[in-house]
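Q: Predict the assembly, please.
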Amino acid sequence: MKLISLALVAAGSISLFAGGGSATATAPAHVQIISPITLISNGIMEFGKVVVDDLSQPVVVKLEPTNNDSFIANKTIVNGTVLSSSQAPTVPFFHARYDKTVGWGGLTITTDPVVNLAPGVNLVPELGLGFVKNGCVIFPPLDPSQEASHFPVGGTLTADPDVLGEYNGLVSVTVAYN
Amino acid sequence: MAIGQAAPAAGTSGTATAPAKVNLIRPITLRRAQDLWFGCLVIDPNSGQLQIVQTAADGGGTRKPDPPGVSQLLTSARPWHNARFEVGGQSEAGFTVTMPGYPIVIHGPGLQTMLVRLNYYCSDTMIDPQGSSIWVGGKLDIPENPRPGHYSGDFEVTVAYQ
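A: Predicted assembly structure:
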């Protein structure tokens, strides 16, 4: 009020700013750096030696994981018999290290729909996502921002009639942030 | 300027009048409406140094990594956005904007830091009756192999009547 009176005496023209002539506000600038995904595998998808019962029919061998910490698999065969000297059926495991803030739920896991081992010999991989284990310890000590999980991968192999021999291939799995 | 007139009466004294004027205006205000958020970045460990350039613009702006293709913005995370401030005060009054002329430091896990060079956009030089906005973007310098985590740091914006 005093300031206004003085202004009147001076008979001038003034805009009163006092403390209201400027204003300041603060905002944060921020970013979240996410750990890159690391994916490694161990174990193999071992279908073993199978004696074909009827060469005029296709052979189908299916490997299914049995739990979240064992390579041992259940094997079922259509039109074939396991040779007694055959390797035990196993499935590989894939181990993923990823950012904790994203979490397992923020990942998408994919695999090849079909792996062609040879003409007439195809493998359809099946992700064993029912056997996911969080807290995988295969990696070196994790950064506090990271966590790790693993899962097995089974599959179904189909060989056309009259296809004999030993065949190998690679199963590719991809883990990505959503 | 008005010229005061002396009263004709006594002669031993004189009185004159002059106009007095005052213009009381609203204080200028500034309110933060939105943070400056560069998003969630997955950095290629082999990328070396990287910049995220986030250009301020009215309600949008652009964002790009430099060099391109060495970072990934998670689509599942909150999308990036510029900061926004709302300016209030006397309608049609002119105002200026002051921003830090130096890079600000944002702090992450441990002692890790990054620098942000700010830029801003404001289409108004006078306060709009509906309110004026200031958009703030920035250029984020990401060092080689940054430690994962949340990095944050404050910056100030000041507005003043002209």
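Chain B touches chain A through 63 residues (CB under 8 Å). The radius of gyration of chain B is 26 Å.
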